[in-house]
Amino acid sequence: MKQKLNIGLFGFGCVGKGLYDVLEHTHGLKANIARICVKDKNKERPVPASYFTFDKYEILNDETINVIVELIDDADAAFEIVSYALRKGKAVVSANKKMIAEHFEELLELQKQFDVPFLYEGAACASIPVIRNLEEYYDNDLLNSIEGIVNGSTNFILTKMYNEGKDYAEVLAEAQQLGFAESNPALDVEGFDARYKLSLLAAHAFGLFIKPDQIFKYGINNISDSDIRYAKEKGFKIKLVAHARKIGKSLGIWVIPRFIPANHALYNIDFEYNGVSVEGVFSDKQFFSGKGAGSFPTASAVLSDISAISYHYQYEYKKTQQEASLNYEPNILMKLYCRFPSSIPVSSLPFESIEQSFNSPELNYVIGNVNLDTLNSSRLLDRDDVFFIQAGDEVDIRNTNEFVEESEVFEIAF
Ligand SMILES: NC(=O)c1ccc[n+]([C@@H]2O[C@H](COP(=O)([O-])OP(=O)(O)OC[C@H]3O[C@@H](n4cnc5c(N)ncnc54)[C@H](OP(=O)(O)O)[C@@H]3O)[C@@H](O)[C@H]2O)c1
Question: Which of 242, 256, 343, 374 is the most buried if burial means most Cβ atoms within 10 Å?
Answer without folding.
Answer: 242
